[in-house]
Amino acid sequence: GAGVSQSPRYKVAKRGQDVALRCDPISGHVSLFWYQQALGQGPEFLTYFQNEAQLDKSGLPSDRFFAERPEGSVSTLKIQRTQQEDSAVYLCASSIGGLAGRSYNEQFFGPGTRLTVL
Amino acid sequence: GQQVMQIPQYQHVQEGEDFTTYCNSSTTLSNIQWYKQRPGGHPVFLIQLVKSGEVKKQKRLTFQFGEAKKNSSLHITATQTTDVGTYFCAGPSVRDSNYQLIWGAGTKLIIKP
C-alpha cells in the first residue's frame, strides 16, 4: 500500500481482556517497529522485527505483551489481560533497511491504535 | 541509561514569530533525526543530520547538528498555523544495534490566537 496502516484505530477494552493490534507496513520494508506513546511523550520503543525475525523485544513492558510478524509483512501486537496502565497509543513504523551498514533509515509511521482500558 | 532531552516542553508564539527547539543527548550520536507530529496525528520524518556541524534548511526550517554531535536544534522562521504540532528529535541507541532510536519527549509548538 501507499503507507503504513494500522487497525483498529481505536480500541476500548475492559480490564483483563485480551487485545490484538494489527500493522500493515509499506510493502518491501524490511524493518518494522512497535512503539508505545503516552500522552505528551515521545514514542517509547517496544520491539523490532527484521523481516520475520524479532531481533529485539527489550522494550516490551511485561510478558503480557507479545508481537509477531510470521511472514515478514503484517505484524500483530497482542496484549493479554489488559491493565489500565496499558492505555496509550500504539504506533507501528516501518523502514526500508535492515542491518546492512550502520545507517539509520527514515521510519514511516502508521496512524496508531488508541487503546483505552477501562 | 542513554537519554535524549528536548527543551522547551512547550512554546507559545504569535503567528509570524520564530520558534526554536533544542535537543541534547547524553551520548555522542552518529546521526540525529527530526520528526513532526500534528495534533491527533503520527510522527512524520523531516530530516536526518549526520555530519558534525551540519546545517540543513527546508524552506523556513533550519536544522543544526552540533560540533560534538551531542546536540541539535530546529529553528522555524516566521511561524505559520501549519507549523503547529510537536517536534521530536531521535538519536540511535548506543547499544550494539543499528535500528533502535531513542526519542526526546518533544517540543509542542502552539500558536497564540
Could you give a short account of the major beta sheet of chain B? Answer: 6 strands, mixed
What's the CATH C level of chain A? Mainly Beta
Low-confidence stretches of chain B: none
The second-level CATH architecture of chain B is Sandwich
How much helix, percentage-wise, in residues of chain B? Answer: under 10%
CATH architecture of chain A: Sandwich
Return the string of H and E elements of chain B: EEEEEEEEEEE
Question: What structural class is derived from the secondary structure elements of chain A?
Answer: mainly beta
DSSP, total strands of chain B: 11
What's the CATH class label of chain B?
Answer: Mainly Beta
Greatest chain-chain contact:
A-B, 28 and 23 residues
| Count of extended strands of chain A | 11
Shape by Cα distribution of chain A: globular
Distance between the termini of chain A: 34 Å
CATH topology of chain A: Immunoglobulin-like
Supply the CATH superfamily name of chain A: Immunoglobulins
Percent range of helical residues of chain A: under 10%
Describe the structure.
The complex is a heterodimer of chains A (118) and B (113). By secondary structure, chain A is mainly β. Chain A has one domain: Immunoglobulin-like (Sandwich), CATH 2.60.40.10. Helices cover 0% and strands 47% of the residues of chain A. In chain A, the strands form 2 sheets. In chain A, strands 2, 4, 5, 6, 9, 10 and 11 form a 7-stranded mixed sheet that branches. Chain A has a 4-stranded antiparallel sheet with strand order 1-3-8-7, with no helix packed on it. In chain A, a hairpin with a 6-residue loop joins β7 (65-68) and β8. Chain B has 113 residues and is mostly beta strands. Chain B has a single domain (4-112), classed as Immunoglobulins (Immunoglobulin-like). Chain B is built from no helices and 11 strands. In chain B, β4 and β5 (44-49) form a beta hairpin. Chain B is globular. The relative contact order of chain B is 0.32. The A-B interface holds A 31, 33, 40-45, 48, 50, 55-56, 91, 93, 95, 98-99, 101-104, 106-112 and B 30-31, 33, 41-45, 48, 88, 90, 92, 97-106, 108.
